[in-house]
Amino acid sequence: MRMSESLVIVPIFEPKDKTAAAYVSDAVDVGKLDGFTAVLQFGAITGDSVLTVYGDSTAALATSLTTAIAFKYRLAAADYKVDLADQLGDAISVAATGLTLTAATFDHRVIVIEIDPDTLTPPAHWVAFNFSSVGNPLLVAGIGLGRPRYAGHLNPSVL
Does residue 33 lie within any of the structural domains? Predict the structure, then answer.
């Protein structure tokens, strides 16, 4: 099985020690996908930061965040390199105001955010993720996995 031919693998956040500024992902065109999952991995978190998800009708979303959306996430059951780090808890709903990332809960953990493109309000089909300028430092990396509507050897670009 060639997973790379059945999924679109999208760089969301390169590994970074986020400091005083906000950290915004590239905008992803989820309109070309049946489903999209963002996998975010955190290292050390020393101050609370807020993760907000945005949905809009343009790729410029990543430079002008306008419409925050509610989302659901699942949290890994344990820290990185600890038994059960690959097990996810139940889905937790988050209001459009965003998810506060506290060290006590998210430090050295993975969260998974699933976006159903069909739930975005038309004509919105672009999604971006934003970490607020507070909560420093925050070590984070992330990739997205999308299931293209029409998979093939060369999947469509969603960036």
Answer: yes
Which pTM does this prediction carry?
0.90
Residue (of 79, 92, 71) closest to 44 by Cα position: 79
For residue 122, the domain's CATH number is: 2.60.120
Taking the C-alpha atoms of residue 156 and residue 125, their distance in angstroms, rounded to an integer, is 15
Flag whether 116 is in a domain. yes
Mean pLDDT by runs of 10 across the 159 residues of the chain is: 82 83 88 94 88 87 82 96 95 96 93 91 89 79 89 71
Residue 2 DSSP label: -
pLDDT computed for residue 152 by the predictor:
66
Q: Is residue 153 part of a domain?
A: no
**CA-based nearest residue to 145, from 11, 1, 2, 52:** 11
Distance from C-alpha of 116 to C-alpha of 69, rounded to nearest angstrom: 12
Domain range holding 121? 13-148
What residue has token string 């999604």?
A: 127
Number of domains making up the chain = 1
Within its chain, how far is the Cα of 123 from the centroid?
Answer: 21
158, part of any domain: no
